[in-house]
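Forum > Structural Biology > Help requests

Title: Can anyone predict the 3D structure of Poly(3-hydroxybutyrate) depolymerase?

Hi all, first post here. I have the sequence for Poly(3-hydroxybutyrate) depolymerase but no way to get a structure on my laptop. I'd be grateful if someone could post the structure tokens.
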Amino acid sequence: MDAGQKLAHAREVGVKTGVVLQKRLKNAQQAFNERAQHAMGSDEAKPGGGWMAAADPMSAYAYAVDSVQRAILFWDTIRQRGNNFVENAVQGLKPVLHFEYETVLDGRSLDRPVNYALLRIKPPAGVTIDDRRRPYVIIDPRAGHGPGIGGFKDDSQVGVALRAGHPVYFVIFFRDPEPGQTLLDVCEAEQQFIKKVRALHPDSQKPAIIGNCQGGWAAMMLAASDPDDTGPIVINGAPMSYWGGAWSEGEGDNPMRYSGGLLGGTWLASLTADLGNGKFDGAWLVQNFENLNPANSWWDKYYNLYRKADTEPPRFLEFERWWGGYYLMNREEIEWITRNLFVGNKLWSGDVKDAGGKGFDLRDIKAPIVLFASMGDNITPPQQAFNWVVDVYGSTEEIKARGQVIVGMMHQNVGHLGIFVSGKVAQKEHAQIVSVLQSIELLPPGLYGMLIHERNSGAGVEYEVEFCEHSLEEVAQRLNRFARVDEKPFEAVAAISEFNQRAYELFAQPYVQAMSNETTARMLREFHPLRMQNWAFSDLNPCMTWLGAAANAIRSNRQSLDDDHPLRQQEQAGAEILSAGLDAYRAVRDAMTEAAFFNVYANMMSFLPQDKPAHAGRPAVTEPRELPEVKAALESIREGGYAEAIARMACLLERQGEPLPLSRLELRKELVTDYAELLPELLPAAWRQIRGQQELITLYAPEQAIETLPDLLHEQADRDRLQKLAEKLRADARLLGSAPTAEQAAMLQRIRDVLSHKPERARRGAVPLARRAS
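Reply #1:
Sure, ran it for you. Structure tokens for Poly(3-hydroxybutyrate) depolymerase below:
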């Protein structure tokens, strides 16, 4: 761009961000007004109603007693939280798992020690585990908090897998990292964990890997670097493509993705680690989460505790035990994360190498992948959870040609933590995921949406699962409202971050490291605001010691008021208005943050080289037949054998345009097991690759696919085997009630007619795809 073009571009950016900012500010004001009017809408909540109740001496006295008693119970709960924090810190911050467990492998004993360990969860009373069933390995996030959130209550990921009879293993980490450990060391340790699980369950299917948030992309790294040992992968709320999160003109969304740019990039993480004498304090990451929702962090959760002082303390203390545990990372770990993921967004581009020097390529993963995200998640929005698929795979056809199965599931409103913490989500979504993983490897290659339908019956709520196939292009367009143009400024963020990082390392880092030591680092950690708010209100503070006895006396003589008391409702109305004010502050802050980000970095884009695309996605091919995957499949249309013939017939007879119920997939699994001797002996990954290639053939050359079918069955033994399989399926009672559609019946007759003729001699040199796939 010349100077005139840059000025015109700057003006265009300013106008757009100004218009969006005005709309956001207007929306913030409107939302506050609506909440305030709703809070003051009832007669009791209006000032007149409250004053009338206050004029009654007995009513005012009863409210005063109730409010003071709730205040003492509230502060006693805060004291207990502080005591729990101190006790957990002294004990080294144990996992918050609800279940008993035993250590199977301690990563601190490996050749390259890491502060990770593999636990085996002991089933609770009344739960029976079958060691021949697929084991589950759950990886919790290491993003400031400690491990265990995936199993800190009975209705959790651990609980639903145990109740389904699966052995469950849990990957935990300790508070302090091992000297010199890196994220690649952690990945290598987790590979050994998976191998250990496989050795403990030699007769079961490959273990399913469940990754939550940061544990999600850790699971993907693990599966990409060691694809032969991992089974299906489920990643929940994992930021795989951190620049995503489409910019919209409505409600402010996903402000966390702007923080890296407004803070100048990765240098601040390096500075914090240097001040910690080489260790990064996870409390700063938790502080970022707290700042996302100031209404909840500063007011709502505390007022909810005060309002329900008789019943809320156990739940509050249970969650705060996890939320208030802060873990550490080495400098190398946090720098690797920020440079390659949060700011660099290049983890899946091939630039980042594993311990063996090979770039992480998610296309190497052979097992099905389930992606679970939520529209209500402003920490990992759906774009960050799904956009990596668009960047890694060039087209839907490539997904099919590689035999990959990717299943997406979307929740409409649950927040980030609710994805892997909510009991309701565990009972519904995670329970259905467990049922799906039993037969997901028989799902044909492609990109699917997983839908869960509720049905009320006499026995209670029942769930029905079905899969709807989508194209990669359709999903990308639906999720990214601006065709990912909003991700372009992050290129400038990465460039500025690299400059600032080098400047810090050159001019400031030597001085910071020289002034830091273990004593100063420990003082900085102990006096972090989040830690102080815990230990300062514990029994370490003499002013809090009287609360325990006072709270016990109040519990034995509690004089509570109902929530519908006029003064209680007046109190709740005031609390709601205060909460609405904090939400309005957040909306204004996020709107101004977004406007500042795009005004700065969208303009910087004009100063960067324009010789490469804004993101790692490949250029779209207008004609699908020109895709290399389609060309390769069509060139091999006459090649193959019995396995290719079975796969091609399955594609030709597939019901087109209909959702695939889970019940039909489970029936397929039963049939495959019962008729195994008549089916090709292939690993699931090899079968899916053949299935995907044959689907491309039947999609782009349907007539040739039918005509060349005899070439795949040139051996009489294969024809006899197929005839025997068809006869058994025709007589199977499980299939008698399912009549084929008119299209299926017509296709079946065409296949019979073609196969009734003597096949042409196979092309010389043709190699079955099954043999080539192995």
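The domain at 101-246+330-482 is CATH 3.40.50.1820 (Rossmann fold). DSSP finds 32 helices and 13 strands in the chain.
Shout if anything looks off.
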